[in-house]
Each structure stands twice: as C-alpha cells, then as structure tokens.
From TrEMBL:
<dbReference type="InterPro" id="IPR036188">
    <property type="entry name" value="FAD/NAD-bd_sf"/>
</dbReference>
<dbReference type="Pfam" id="PF05199">
    <property type="entry name" value="GMC_oxred_C"/>
</dbReference>
<comment type="subunit">
    <text>Monomer.</text>
</comment>
<feature type="domain" description="Glucose-methanol-choline oxidoreductase N-terminal">
    <location>
        <begin position="86"/>
        <end position="109"/>
    </location>
</feature>
<feature type="domain" description="Glucose-methanol-choline oxidoreductase N-terminal">
    <location>
        <begin position="909"/>
        <end position="923"/>
    </location>
</feature>
<dbReference type="InterPro" id="IPR012132">
    <property type="entry name" value="GMC_OxRdtase"/>
</dbReference>
<comment type="similarity">
    <text>Belongs to the GMC oxidoreductase family.</text>
</comment>
<feature type="domain" description="Glucose-methanol-choline oxidoreductase N-terminal">
    <location>
        <begin position="722"/>
        <end position="745"/>
    </location>
</feature>
<feature type="domain" description="Glucose-methanol-choline oxidoreductase N-terminal">
    <location>
        <begin position="273"/>
        <end position="287"/>
    </location>
</feature>
<dbReference type="InterPro" id="IPR007867">
    <property type="entry name" value="GMC_OxRtase_C"/>
</dbReference>
<protein>
    <recommendedName>
        <fullName>pyranose dehydrogenase (acceptor)</fullName>
        <ecNumber>1.1.99.29</ecNumber>
    </recommendedName>
</protein>
<keyword id="KW-0964">Secreted</keyword>
<keyword id="KW-0285">Flavoprotein</keyword>
<dbReference type="InterPro" id="IPR000172">
    <property type="entry name" value="GMC_OxRdtase_N"/>
</dbReference>
<keyword id="KW-0274">FAD</keyword>
<dbReference type="GO" id="GO:0033718">
    <property type="term" value="F:pyranose dehydrogenase (acceptor) activity"/>
</dbReference>
<dbReference type="GO" id="GO:0050660">
    <property type="term" value="F:flavin adenine dinucleotide binding"/>
</dbReference>
C-alpha cells in the first residue's frame, strides 16, 4: 500500500469542496491540498459547460451521475425511488439545472437560532453568497455580488412560455407581483415571479464551481485525482490522519483494485455529499453503534445521527400540450445529436441561443392565503403554526415553468409541450441513508427517502396542483393536458383533463374539486412524486444530543482533524435549489479552515469584513434580519436604522453618499432632503432654465433674508440657496470655474488641515469629471461622472468680448484653459457643467444617486427637513426630521426619528448645517441659551465665518444682430417652447446654453493698485501678493439681461458680470428658535462691511465698462443698471451710443464719480449664490467647527460634508469646491469605516 502526505485532503470533489479547496490553495501556495473525486473531470466538456445539455445528460448512460435506489414508503404506496446525484468534479454544480435560487433568510437564521450554530445566520451567510457571485443583471444590488467567480444571468434564449405564465399569474392572482429579482432575500420575493440562472450571460457557459474555483486557477499546490472513490477515513485513535481510496474505474467494473492510503498532516474534509459523506463516516467507524456492530465495523465514535435526517424536495412536473408558437426546448432536450447540432453550433459560435437556457424562465415562491389555509386544514394546521406562521419569508411551495416535457416516458409522442413544476419548499417528512457493507464501497445503500410520509406534505402538493393548473389553462399557449401526466379523475368529474383543448379566459371560474377529485390528486402524487435532486442533511450541523454529526465549525463530533463541508451538514431544509447553499457552505468552510490554520489572505479578510459590515448594518430596531423587510426606493418613517444618514441632499452629499453606496452596496444609506426630487425634470436638466427658475414660484430655492446692513445703506440682501436633491448643482448657473491651487494649499498650511492641499484635491476633481474638450495639462479628468463641455456654438457676444480683450487689454494673454489651477490673468473660453453630447446639466443628483436605481440600500427621502441630530451622550445616533411640505405651510407635523448605527453626516449647506448643529445643542453658549437649547458642545464657531462673493451684472443694450438669451430667459412659455423642442430633439440650441462662454480671472496692475490705495493695501500685501494664482476679480460676458424688471422693455441685452474673488468681509448665520426649523435665521451677510471690498468693485466696474463699450454689439448703456453720475461727468452713461474704438482713451473718473460708483455698489451689490464657511474646518480655538476628518469637535459619529466647512474663500464658483468636498468626504468616511473601493483618484 503506497502512501503520500498532504496538508489537507478533500474526500469528494463536489460543489462545496471545489470552493473551499480553491480558496485555500490560492490563499496559501505552500499548502498541499488533495481532492479525491469518484467521478471524472468536467473541464470544458460540452455536456457540462453547455447549460441546455443538462436534461439530455440524464437520458444517456454517463458516469457523471450516481443513481441511488430508495425504498418505497407508506407515503408513496411502496414505490421505489431513483435519486441521481452529481458524480464529477464540481459535483451537482457540473450537471444541475443551473437554477439560480437562494434560500430565504429565515432558513439560515434557523440554523443559528434553532440549532445553535453561531455564525451561520443569514447575516453571516449572505455576504459570503455575495462574495461568490457576479450578478450580471444588476451587479450593484445590495444583496448580490459584483466581482465573484460565479456568473449569474437571465437567459439569452428566453422563452415566451415563461413570460406568459408570469403574465397570467399576475393578472389572476392579485396578491402577486412581478420582480426582476426573487432572490434578494426580502419579502418582496415572496409571491413574486422571476427567474435567473447560473449561466455567464457573456459566454453562455455554465457557472460551476470546478471551472470557476479550480480549473481557472491552475494552482500547483492543489492536486486532483479523479475516478478515485474514498472508502474510509484513517484514524489514529480519534484523530483523522488520512483516507483510503480505490481506483473507481476499475472497482465499478468489479475489477480487483488495491486500496491506496494518503495521509493528511492537518485536516481531512469529507465533501462527498448527502450519500457519500455519511457512507464514508460509517465505513470509518463513525455512526450508530447498532449499525456498525451489524456490519462488523470497529466503532471509533458513537454518533447515531450519521445518515439520518435525509431531506429533499417533493417534485412534480405537470405537463401540458403547447401551441406551435410556443418557444419550447423539447427538441433540445430529447432530440438526436443531429437535431440539436444547430443549437450547439450557435452556442459555440456566440454563446447564445437555446443551449444557454435551462428552460425555466418564470417562477415564484408561494404561501397560501387565509382562504387556502382553510382548505389545507386540518392536516397542515400544526405545520403552519409551528413552522411558517411567524416566518413570513418562508414559502410553502415553489413554482416554475419549464418550456418542455420533463419526463422519460417513451410513450409520449414528440411535439411541443410545457410543464409547470412545483415542489414543497420545506417538506416535513425526512428519511435516512446508511451503508449495507463495511468493506464494499459499491454495495447498495439502505436508502429510505420517506417522501410524503407526513400528510402535511401531501395536502401541500394537492393545493399546488390546483394552483398551477389554473395558471396553465389560462396561458395562450395551452392546447390541452398531457393526460398521462395528470390525475385520473372520476368519470364525469368537472376536473377531468380530457375536456379543455384551448385556453380559458382569465376571468373564467376556477375548477371546483370534489372530495373524490382530491383523493385522485393525492393518489396521483403518491404514484408520481419524485426527487428534486436536492439531497441534503445526512450529517447535520446540530447539537450532538439532537442527532447532530458536526458542530458549527464543521468538526465531526468526537474526532479531531475531521470536518465535513457539503450539503449533508444542513440541519433543516431550505426553500430553494440547493446549489446556493452548497456555495455558502463552501465559502464558509474556507473561512473556518483558514482561521483555524492561521492562513492570512485577502479572501479570508474580505469574507470576514463582508460579514462584519453586514452584521453592523443589518440589525433593525426589532432585532430582525434586514432580509425580512422589503427594500423601498423611497424611505419611509418605518425605516428606522441606517448605517449612515445624510442630513441634507446637496451637491456634496450626493457625491459622498453615491460613492459610498457604489463601493459597498450593502451599506444602508439615507439622504434626508428638505427639497423635492429633480429627477428628469426639464426645469433642472435643461441648462438654460436656471435663470427663469429664480423668478418663478418654485420650491427648489430657499431665500434667506439678511439683517439690514449699514454698509448696504440699510438694505437687506436676499440670498437664495438650492433646495432640491442635488442642492446647488441642480439649480446653479452651470459655470465651470475651479479655485486657485493656493486656495486649497491655504486650507492645509494656514489652517492645519492635512490632506486638503491642492495636490490632494486636484486628483479628486479629476476623478469626478469627464472634460470633454480634452486638455493638454494633467489637471482634468477623462472618465468621471460629471461631463464638462464648451458651448458648441460660441455666441457672437462672447466672440466679440474676446476679440476686444485681445486688442484692448495688452497686459493680459490668452489660454485654452482658464481652469488649470496655477495661473490667472488670462482670457479664455469658460466651460460649463453640461454634457456636450446630450445637452443636459451635469448635476450630482443624476450622476451619483439617480443612476443607482439598482441599489435599494441607497434611499432618498425628499421634502423632509432635518430638525436636529439625536445624541446619546456625545455620540450621534440619528436625526429627527419633519414633513417639509406641512411644516413650510405652517401646519403641525410630528417629528420622526431615524437612527444611524455608524455615522451622521450633516450636509445641509452654509445655512442648514449650522442651524441643525445649533438646534442639536452644538454652538455658542449665548446662542443656545437664548433659544432654549441644552448645550452638548460649546462650539462658538458654528454659524460664524459666513462668506460669499459680491456680484454685479452690469447691463448694456445690444445690437439686433447680437446672439442673446433674453427671449429664452424672459420670454413667455410659447416663446420658449421652440428652444425646448430643439433641446428635446437633439440636445442642442440655446436651451443647452448658460449664456456664459468666456471670461477672465484678473489681478490689478501696479497703476490700478495705486488707485485702490489705501483701502486695499493691507489685503493685497498679506493675501494676494504672496499668491500670484489668486484672482482679485472674476469677470465675464453674459449674453442676456440678468434681472427681471418690468420697467425695462423687452429687447436684446448683454451684461458684464464681475465678482470679487476673496471678499474681506464675513458674516454670520444663527437660529432664532431652538425648536422651529422654519423660524427666520439671524443672518448678517456682511457684504461690503470692509472698505477693501468696495474698492475692488469700483476697479471692476471701470474695467468691465471699458471693455464692453468697445464691443461691436454694444449699442449703449442700460442706464437703470449703472451708477448715477453727476450731470456733466465724463463718466455719464447713455442709453444709445456707438461703440468706442480699441484706441479711444479710457474714461477718466473723478472723486465724485468714484463716490457714485461706490454708492451704486452699496445699492446694487448682491449675492453670487456662493454661501460657504459657516462650519469652518479650522482649529477649534480659531473658531473651527470640524477637524480635517470632517468630525465635529467634541462629539463622535458626526461629520459635516458640504461647503460650510470651507475655512476660507475660493476664487471661483463654488460648485467645483462642493464636488471636491463630496469626493474627499467619501474617501474619509470609507477609510474610517473600513470600506474598500473609494479611491483618491
């Protein structure tokens, strides 16, 4: 007897064994692993990898099956049963029906709660199933995998038979619905219709474990010996040290073959299935003392549970005659090789067609209605009450269409058929399987499946027959019954199958069955019910005293170094085809063994991390598993626990939430947004609508009125902010400008925020964008979600502006990219956040959130306003919100609390975020006391540091040939409609425009600086001089009048917009009520409080006017929009005037003119809609609110992620900075929570 030694030996090479062995061998290349499989290899053999071959394989003598003869029991009138099992590398996965069906969560939960197997609940196993698969129909679904080895798809050769059954079912059974996924572990999958399969949708190949864990790896440390049947485990005392096997090819042919012993230094793993594993144990001396003694086997361990607890599903295929137009697989299943050759050729050529299909295109898991339960009484009463009633996810039957006759009866003529299959999901009857010889591994087994021994199983099948028959007779392809496949009803029965030859109407009455008819159905089932090929449970993972064979670590009781890893370990049945459970067992076994042997590898940590994340995420307030709840796209008050809650759904929030959800679809994320959804609304996605939206009554803006300002001559500026999913990105001007590199560098060097310098932020901004024009520098992105473009047709006003700038402003140059971070003082085109292909706005809601419909765990609750953060001590544990529609109208609305198990992120913007913090007890002591709020953290910086840009749109009258957007911005609905229609047609035209095509970021020259002295001296020396990339002013032509004033006649206008890049003045915003989120804020904008800001605007006015009056489309000044210069001033404006030449001298302004300009700015300056800074990322002692990780000082589990965190201003429109913050927040949160897949570039 020869011997060889391995670290681990697998006795059996079935589905689970291939997974476990493959994972371990890949994890540790030094581990010597041997798989001994009684059957042959299956690598690249057509009858394995072509899915449609599975049924034909049963009809041809092949060594890839073992057939087990079961004794007849009382439930089946003493009939013998033939139960096949897979006998090849990959086991059942290499020959099964490729049905993708996963158990319900309570099936696995029972393993833990009923049988005490810690670590085997649905919360532990679902992540492992995800890890194993790539769910091709929806790879980002939270309960499915996206990168696993096994590919799942819907059939490419989909049959109309399945579609028809689903259509009929949902039409006549009102409690049912369709689903794209009845395997998502939710209640939504109960009484729902839809089927997928273990087939790669790209190649058409079967997804078996041999090919996807073994053959594709070519692992030198994993040895496979096929056609080697393990006879027994070798023990030293009770320690397993190896196995003995025979040459199966010789032994099966009754030839003499010498047993071969191989040693295992670390572990023996039995993986020979529900028949093979208990047989090996018993031949090895592990089992019932009575049996072992009877067979002359020396007992090693007294374990009477071995071979008991046999389970299967009770299967029926009821056949029907099909019409010619029905797409069936009869020829593929029962045809000759010549007849199936076209299907095989198509599969070989393109991986498509009939041979990629299993014929099962529709199905459901069904529970009885209250009325049906009465019919099932009394036989089913006890089973329902004790097993089903308190577990609403457990189906009683499983139904599926089969687009073929499924049977082996040669009397059935060839033709077109369809069948409706049904099986009991959790039969009460169980059986046994034992050896009959201690030495002959080929002796027949003592096998009693005991089908239908319990009458509860019989009445379930009776109910199922009636249900499926009602479906079939209404299907348009129905042409009668294949009578030999149905009950023999009494003569004259209304249920007789010889009457109907065509479908009945959907509303036809159901067949009424008599007691005699029921008896006929019962007899039919006793005579014809068969295996579902789902043999499990014969080495159950139960307590030893309850008949268990293995513990929760898969160790065989009473032995050492011996485990079992296959479906024989299942302690109770599962409501599904058993392949998914074999996968779960294989993946779980790999982790258990790796942990015990100290193997460290990504697959082990990944699996464990998946489990930990799922456990942390998944416990609801009532303690139940998430799998018991339905996923809802829109969150409701009943959804009470999330991993992360975003209080506000603005630009940054959508990015951070979207990135995290995409990286870990199992993460439960809630966005609570005060405003409405914007999805596919033309007011939002059509770029040019932004202007008119500001002047129409809409709920997509919140208007904040500032306190009267002395600097503004007593005016109270009104500042709008975006109030919709996507925040400002859904309503802004879509201007693409980016901050200076030194802006972000200041955040790190000046304020100590490590990781926020331009070298860290630029890669994130690149990652976020696709810069469609292309770029010669490396600061732009090429594959991000947000599309950036230039206007396809530069309006002639913009062309004119650039031409005049080239001829008039000799101090400044031109660039093809005004947004490359490191320079200013250059004219050029300005890009837009608009997709140049579709003409659509590039907002964060559509590009990070709405495009994740498949992710049911990313939920958005719109029109709900967060009032405060909920704390336990100083730990943020949730938020309280109110119905905003009711609250804004002054109605009474009850607050709702939702909990966050891991993190709360405040992201309500520069107004909303500090208000939420203050109402939550975080802020200045004086503010909180005044508003009756109990202080949690003394943080006086909350609400301070308000910043904006000071903007002026200087208007000019345009010539008739100027291209302007006035008709679009200020026209009636009828006038605007042609532009809208063009956009709908091709995404082009003025509706895809924002009216801003070019501009410049400008700094004053020495002469201009002298004119701005002394007010601007300190600001220049301390802030601008050391940072040559910082613009003092940004200005740009705007191809329209930027106001709505009925005193201004309709016509053509253009404006020069200018705003100060870094105003010195700052303001504040605080709450005025500790309980009412609708109380007006104590808001002081601070505009022009510092005189330095005023002289900047004075300089900007002069520069803008000089350039505008030289443009050929200039036809005069719109007087109402300019300063009121004294009569006789050389600076006086005129409504009608010809353009000046490029060489004409500049206007000379007197001191009185400067005063008039200053007065004008005090009267006219407004917000640029760029509110930032009120929860500043600064040191706490410097007025900071959050640290560099966005954590709110003094509390845990609370971050802020929006533009309120900016410690200082940025020389640009703020949307780009909001993007940077959103992307950075996603990276930080992912790092903090251990989420993989959120990268820094």
């Amino acid at each position: 007897m020869s011997e060889e030694t391995y670290d681990i030996i697998f006795a059996g090479g079935g589905a689970s064994a291939c997974i476990t062995a493959g994972r371990l061998a890949e994890a540790d290349p030094n581990l010597k692993i041997l798989i001994l499989e009684a059957g042959p290899h299956s690598e690249d053999l057509f009858y394995h990898v072509q899915p449609g071959r599975y049924f034909g394989n049963l009809l041809v003598p092949r060594e890839i099956f073992s057939f087990h003869f079961g004794k007849g029991g009382k439930g089946t009138n003493g009939r013998m049963h033939l139960v096949p099992t897979g006998r090849a590398l990959g086991g059942g996965s290499a020959i099964n029906f490729v049905m993708y069906m996963r158990p319900v969560p309570s099936d696995y939960d029972d393993w833990e709660t009923v049988y005490g197997n810690k670590g085997w609940s649905s919360r532990e196993l679902i992540p492992l199933l995800k890890k194993a698969e790539t769910y091709q129909p929806n790879p980002n679904h939270p309960s499915h995998g996206s990168t696993g080895p096994l590919k799942i798809s819907f059939a490419s050769g989909h049959s109309n038979v399945g579609d028809e059954m689903v259509a009929v079912a949902t039409a006549i059974e009102k409690d049912h619905h369709t689903t794209n996924d009845h395997n998502d572990f939710t209640l939504e999958s109960i009484n729902a219709w839809g089927v997928s399969q273990y087939v790669d949708g790209n190649t058409g190949k079967r997804s078996d474990t041999a090919h996807h864990y073994i053959y594709n790896k070519k692992l030198p440390n994993l040895k496979i010996i096929t056609r080697a049947k393990v006879t027994k485990v070798l023990f030293e005392g009770t320690k397993a040290v190896g196995v003995e096997y025979l040459n199966d090819e010789v032994a099966r042919g009754k030839g003499a073959t010498e047993p071969v012993a191989v040693k295992a230094s670390k572990l023996v793993v039995l993986a020979a299935g529900a028949f093979g594993s208990p047989a090996i144990l018993e031949r090895s001396g592990v089992g019932s003392p009575e049996l072992l003694k009877k067979l002359g086997i020396k007992q090693v361990v007294d374990l009477p549970g071995v071979g008991e607890n046999y389970m299967d599903h009770n299967m029926m295929f009821t056949p029907y005659l099909a019409s010619e137009e029905a797409e069936t697989m009869d020829l593929a299943f029962r045809g000759s090789e010549e007849e199936v050759k076209p299907y095989a050729d198509q599969w070989v050529k393109e991986g498509k067609g009939v041979f990629t299909n299993n014929g099962v295109d529709g199905g459901a898991r069904i529970r009885p209605t209250e009325e049906e339960l009465k019919i099932l009484s009394p036989e089913f009463d006890e089973r329902w009450k004790t097993y089903y009633a308190d577990k609403p996810d457990k189906p009683v039957i499983v139904i599926a269409t089969m687009a073929a006759y499924v049977g082996l009866n040669p009397a059935v003529p060839r033709g077109k058929y369809f069948s409706i299959a049904y099986f009991t999901a959790h039969p009460e009857s169980t059986g046994h399987v034992h050896i009959t010889s201690g030495t002959d591994a080929y002796a027949p087994l003592d096998f009693g499946p005991n089908y239908l021994d319990k009458t509860s199983d019989l009445v379930v099948l009776r109910w199922a027959y009636k249900r499926v028959r009602e479906l079939a007779r209404r299907m348009k392809f129905f042409r009668g019954y294949l009578e030999l496949g149905h009950p023999q009803f009494p003569s004259g029965s209304a249920a007789a199958t010889d009457k109907e030859k065509a479908p009945v109407p959907l509303d036809a009455p159901k067949i009424v069955y008599t007691k005699e008819d029921d008896d006929a159905i019962d007899e039919y089932h006793r005579q014809t019910v068969e295996t579902c090929w789902h043999s499990i449970g014969t080495c159950p993972m139960k307590p030893r005293e309850q008949g268990g064979v293995v513990d929760s670590k898969l160790n065989v009781y009473g032995t050492q170094n011996l485990k079992i890893a296959d479906c024989s370990i299942t302690p109770s049945n599962v409501a599904a085809n058993t392949y998914s459970t074999a996968i779960a067992v294989g993946e779980k076994a790999a982790i258990i063994i790796a942990e015990e042997l100290g193997i460290k590898d990504a697959f082990v940590s990944h699996g464990r991390k998946e489990v930990e994340l799922y456990l942390a995420r998944d416990t609801l307030q009532d303690g139940t598993s998430h799998g018991r709840k339905s996923y809802l796209r829109m969150a409701t008050a009943q959804d009470t626990v999330y991993d992360i809650i975003f209080a506000g759904g603005g630009a940054s929030a959508c990015i951070a939430a979207g990135r995290l959800a995409a990286a870990d679809p199992s993460l439960k994320i809630l966005i609570v947004e005060a405003g409405p959804h914007t999805r596919e609304l033309q007011d939002h996605i059509q770029p040019a609508r932004y202007f008119s939206n500001l002047f129409l009554p809409k709920e997509t803006f919140t208007f904040h009125k500032s306190q009267p300002s002395q600097a503004l001559l007593g005016r109270s500026p009104v500042v709008p902010s975006g109030r919709a999913v996507g925040g400002g990105s859904s309503v802004n001007f879509v201007v693409y400008t980016r901050a200076a590199a030194s802006d972000y560098d200041d955040w790190e060097t000046k304020y100590g925020n490590k990781g926020w310098s331009s070298k860290h932020i630029i890669p994130l901004l690149k990652k976020a964008e696709t810069f469609q024009p292309g770029s010669k520098n490396d600061t732009h992105g090429a594959s991000g979600p947000l599309k950036i473009s230039y206007a396809p047709d530069l309006v002639n006003v913009a062309e004119d502006f650039l031409e005049v700038a080239a001829g008039f402003d000799k101090e400044r140059s031109f660039t093809d990219d005004t947004n490359q971070f490191f320079e200013c003082e250059k004219y050029g085109r300005w890009a837009r956040y608009i997709d140049g292909v579709t003409g659509r706005r590039s907002d964060t809601a559509h590009h990070y959130v709405y495009n994740q419909d498949h992710n049911s765990n990313l939920k958005v609750l719109d029109r709900h306003r967060v009032v405060r953060v909920i704390f336990e001590g100083n730990q943020a544990v949730g938020v309280e919100y109110v119905n905003d529609l009711v609250g804004r109208s002054g109605g009474v609305t009850e607050p709702i609390v939702v909990k966050a198990s891991r993190l709360v992120v405040v992201s309500a913007g520069a107004f909303g975020s500090p208000a939420i913090l203050e109402r939550s007890g975080i802020g200045a002591k004086a503010v909180l006391e005044k508003n009756g709020v109990k202080q949690i953290v003394d943080l006086p910086g909350v609400g301070e540091n308000y910043m904006d840009h000071n903007v002026i749109f200087l208007p000019f009258v345009a010539t008739p040939d100027a291209d302007t957007l006035d008709a679009l911005f200020q026209g009636t609905r009828e006038e605007v409609e042609p532009y809208a229609q063009q956009w709908l047609k091709d995404g082009k035209g003025l509706m895809s425009h924002n009216g801003i095509d070019c501009g410049v970021k400008m700094r004053p020259n020495a002469e201009e600086l002298a004119a701005m002295s002394p007010e601007f001296d300190h600001r220049w020396k301390t802030y601008f001089a050391p940072a040559p990339d910082k613009p003092v002013m940004l200005y740009l032509p705007f191809a329209a009048l930027a106001t709505v004033n009925p005193a201004i006649p309709k016509g053509k206008y253009f404006s020069i917009a200018y705003f100060s890049g870094y105003p010195v003045s700052v303001g504040r915003v605080h709450i005025t009520s500790g309980t009412n989120p609708y109380s007006p804020s104590d808001f002081h904008a601070g505009f022009l409080d510092d005189p330095a800001d005023l002289v900047i605007l004075r300089w900007a006015y002069k520069k803008s006017r000089e350039l505008a009056r030289r443009m050929k489309y200039y036809s005069g000044d719109l007087v109402i929009g300019h300063p009121k210069f004294k009569e006789g001033s050389k600076a006086a404006v005129q409504q009608k005037r010809n353009p000046a030449s490029l060489t004409d001298p500049e206007i000379v302004y007197t001191k009185e003119d400067d005063d008039a300009i200053d007065q004008y700015h005090r009267e006219k300056v407004e917000t640029t809609w760029h509110s930032i800074g009120t929860c500043a990322m600064k040191p706490r002692e410097a007025g900071g609110v959050v640290d560099e990780r966005l954590n709110v000082y003094g509390v845990q589990g609370l971050k802020v992620a929006d533009c309120s965190i900016t410690p200082d201003n940025v020389g640009a429109n703020t949307y780009n900075t909001a993007i940077a913050i959103g992307e950075k927040a996603a990276v930080i949160i992912a790092e903090d929570l251990g989420i993989k897949g959120v990268t820094t570039e």
